[in-house]
Amino acid sequence: MEPENALASENGPLESSSKTQNQEEATKDGPAEMLDMPKEDSLSAHSESAIGGAAARYNSALDMTLKALLNIKVLKEDLKNNTQRFQQVPSALQHFFNAFVSESIKTEGVYSCILSDLLSSLEEVISKSSDAAKVVVAILEFWFCWKNPEGESLVTRLFTLAENERMSCRKCRWITNYPEKSSYTIVMPADSIRQLKCAFESMKFVDILKVIRMEYQKSCDIKTGGCGESNFVHHFISRCPPVFTIVLEWEKSETEKEISETTKALDLELDISRLYVGLEPNTNYRLVSMVGCGEEEEHICLAYENNRWVNLGRESLAGEDVSHWKSAVIFFGDFKVNLREESLSGEDDGNWKSVVSFFGERKIRPEILFYEAVGSMA
Ligand SMILES: [Zn+2]
User: Fold this and answer.
1) Does an H or E element contain 219, and which?
2) For residues 158 and 20, which has the higher predicted lDDT (pLDDT)?
3) In sequence order, what DSSP letters do the residues of 14-55 get, joined into one string?
4) Do 339 and 357 touch, CB atoms closer than 8 A?
5) Which of 72, 170, 175, 214 has most Cβ atoms within 10 angstroms of its Cβ?
């Protein structure tokens, strides 16, 4: 349960991003100097091979995770309002931010070059990774270097969840406070979500998450004066980050039926005061984008845009509308029945039920869910 890959220590991310920058500079000054000045013919040959290389080095987890991130409104606003500060960040990131803000990413060619540039800067961490959860952390650590005038990182401000845990023993009333833990995501096992949804059909997603977390008990520490009894742990956060990110961990051997049953548990809105003690009731977050992974390890990004859900394609910013994905699948035991009817009408929430059917039918496992605080979206 510990999001070990998601810990954001104050030094870690800074070190890793400055290392990447140095390596970039080393490559620039290295072999390139040994080459003769290219003539015009070889220039065009070079750019063709660069495009070929970029295609070969495509990483769908990176592409789709970036698209999902850029659909977060509060992040978009930050990028648009702080263009002058891009100078301080590594060049690949500078290019990416600038292109995004200037809305110059109109063609697939431009986008794939910027993406390939970013991929080479992050290569050590994600070149072969098809694990979207690792990719999110790699991107956020790379972005960590980007700070506002107060010296606070964009990543700390928008994405970091600083959690405290407290155990109050039901037997001897001993109270234990655990050290604060910082992470970018909360990680939840897909199979536990599915089991709970199947057992309690009307249970909300946030309550499913709460029950799963309650299963992880800690024992009342004898060494510090406790009695050894196992107890629930209460979670606190002192500040609600504008973005709340949930990672679903899959076995990757799930059937279509299991994927479908799991995605049915997801909700468009979460009230995180159900998860953390002491928050105002109705501390609501809304799902704005998701990264999913199919059977061939290809990733997709579903984004909520202009009141509809859109499946964003590879190396382009155009999307396929999935709000009218009209088919539904019903299971009787292991028998599957496809209903291709208008049974999923209802235009509210961009037709969320259609999105759920889309995941099940295409056998795509939702891996990353980006929720945005409703207050910060207004
Ligand atoms: Zn106790």
Assistant:
1) strand 218-219
2) 158
3) HHHHHHHHHHHHHHHHTGGGGSPPPPHHHHHHHHHHHHHHHH
4) no
5) 72
Give the residues across from 183 on adjacent strands.
Answer: 7, 161
Radius of gyration in angstroms for the set of CA atoms belonging to the chain, rounded to a whole number: 23
Q: How far apart are CA 287 and CA 39, in angstroms?
A: 51
Q: Residue 151: is its pLDDT beyond 70?
A: yes
- In the beta sheet, which residues pair with residue 231? 218
3-state secondary structure (DSSP) of residue 89:
coil
Contact between 112 and 53 under an 8 Å Cβ cutoff? The reply is no
Strand pairing of 175-183 and 230-231?
unpaired
Of 47-56, 111-120, 296-305, minimum mean pLDDT range: 47-56
Q: How many angstroms does the Cα of residue 209 sit away from the middle of ligand 1? A: 26
One-letter amino acid of 320: E
Which of 86-90, 208-212, 234-238, 294-298 shows the lowest mean pLDDT across its residues? Answer: 86-90
What stretches of 147-297 show up as alpha helix (H) in DSSP?
154-159, 190-199, 205-214, 256-263
Say how far apart CA 6 and CA 107 lie, in whole Å: 33
- List residues, by chain if needed, whose CB lies under 5 Å from ion ligand 1: 169, 171-172, 174, 220, 226-227, 229
Q: Rounded distance, CA 118 to CA 68, Å?
A: 16
Is the CB of residue 370 less than 8 Å from the CB of residue 288? yes
Phi first, then psi, for residue 294 (nearest 5°) are -90, -175
How much distance in Å is there from the Cα of 211 to the middle of ligand 1? Answer: 22
